């Protein structure tokens, strides 16, 4: 079966690329090579050439997501599925090859392989943390300036879909994904209406999830999430974005499923976007759990999302 090894990018449409660039720069991304008047490519400090793409259009819209695959043979396999495009050269910066597919709801999913890596951007070392037992930071004071967080990588996204089971079957037939946790209706034992999924890289540790597929009465992206270096980056960036006049959405808090310390914002076009750090990592042996609470109960501490957060 074809195996995804990384979440490469999310792609949007918006009418004003300058406004999007201004926000994403304040959020902690860097404009990437290949950007022009029609397409904005933004990157993090890691080796992906770009992790957030915006194409200019009259109306804003979420287009889809791209996954990096383990081998060219994976693309050849995916191209055999009904509705898949052929293996073709990518026109995005970095080149390589791609197969374009669409979920049952029409969301574009790209499988990519062979894209050239970017030279990583220098970032500071994570701040060590002195807990009550382990004093890891000695003669090393923390000095966290109020400034944009430095985005390291794209970590996950959440899709709203019309039919959870159909969409999960579509993804699982094409990608080697594992279930991490299940969403059930609040106070009920079933049915499953959402699934957190992760990469299957055997004994290699991976994020608890890189996507959540959530059944809904509307189709689109709920949010995309980007990992920053540590808790100080989340908090200092929060203050910076407030100073720049951006309105906080939900945060700061700690998730229940995945454990991330999160901070949600809205970009100029209403798309929700998240800073996070300190998420769970697991391997292929991790067993899924079940959650049947409300949106507010997905937060352990901090600013809790409203009940309608996932609606």
User: In angstroms, what separates the terminal alpha carbons?
Assistant: 34 Å
Q: Element order, helices and strands?
A: EHEEEEHEEEEHEEEEEHEEEEEE
* Global mean pLDDT: 97
How many domains? The number is: 1
Query: What does the overall shape look like?
Result: globular
Number of helices: 4
CATH architect. name: Roll
Query: Fraction of residues in helices?
Result: 10-25%
Largest sheet: 10 strands, mixed
User: By CATH's scheme, which homologous superfamily applies?
Assistant: 2,3-Dihydroxybiphenyl 1,2-Dioxygenase, domain 1
Q: Biggest sheet, strands in spatial order?
A: 19-10-11-13-9-14-17-16-15-20
CATH fold-type name: 2,3-Dihydroxybiphenyl 1,2-Dioxygenase, domain 1
- Secondary-structure class: mainly beta
Number of separate strands: 20
Question: What does the model show?
Answer:
- Residues 153-278 form the VOC domain.
- This is VOC family protein.
- It comes from Leucobacter chromiisoli.
- Pfam families: Glyoxalase.
- By secondary structure, the chain is mainly β.
- The protein has a single domain (4-116, 150-302), classed as 2,3-Dihydroxybiphenyl 1,2-Dioxygenase, domain 1 (Roll), CATH 3.10.180.10.
- The chain contains 4 helices and 20 strands.
- A 10-stranded mixed sheet has the order 19-10-11-13-9-14-17-16-15-20, covered by helices on one side. Strands 2-3-4-1-5-8-7-6 form an 8-stranded mixed sheet, with helices on one face.
- The longest helix is centred in the C-terminal third of the chain and has 13 residues, at 231-243.
- The protein starts with a strand and ends in a 9-residue tail after the last strand.
């Amino acid at each position: 079966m074809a195996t995804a090894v990384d979440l490469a990018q999310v792609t949007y449409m918006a009418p004003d690329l300058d406004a999007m660039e201004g926000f994403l720069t304040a959020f902690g991304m860097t404009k990437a090579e290949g950007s022009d008047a029609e397409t904005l490519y933004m990157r993090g400090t890691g080796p992906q050439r770009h992790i957030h793409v915006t194409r200019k259009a009259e109306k804003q819209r979420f287009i889809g997501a791209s996954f990096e695959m383990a081998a060219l043979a994976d693309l050849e396999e995916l191209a055999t599925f009904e509705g898949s495009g052929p293996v073709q050269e990518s026109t995005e910066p970095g080149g390589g090859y791609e197969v374009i597919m669409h979920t049952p709801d029409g969301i574009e999913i790209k499988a990519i392989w062979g894209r050239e890596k970017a030279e990583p951007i220098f970032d500071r070392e994570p701040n060590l943390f002195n807990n009550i037992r382990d004093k890891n930071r000695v003669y090393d004071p923390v000095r966290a300036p109020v400034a944009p967080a430095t985005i390291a990588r794209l970590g996950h996204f959440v899709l709203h879909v019309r039919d959870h089971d159909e969409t999960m079957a579509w993804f699982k037939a094409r990608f080697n994904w594992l279930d991490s946790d299940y969403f059930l209706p609040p106070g009920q034992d079933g049915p499953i209406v959402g699934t957190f999924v992760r990469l299957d890289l055997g004994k290699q540790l991976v994020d608890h999830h890189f996507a959540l597929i959530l059944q809904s009465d509307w189709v689109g992206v709920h949010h995309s999430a980007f990992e920053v270096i540590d808790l100080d980056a989340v908090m200092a960036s929060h203050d910076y974005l407030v100073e720049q006049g951006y309105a906080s959405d939900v945060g700061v808090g700690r998730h229940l499923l995945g454990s991330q310390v999160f901070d949600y914002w809205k970009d100029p076009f209403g798309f929700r976007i998240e800073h996070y750090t300190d998420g769970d990592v697991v391997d292929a042996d991790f067993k899924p759990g079940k959650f049947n609470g409300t949106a507010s109960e997905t937060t352990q501490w901090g600013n809790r999302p409203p009940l309608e957060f996932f609606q």
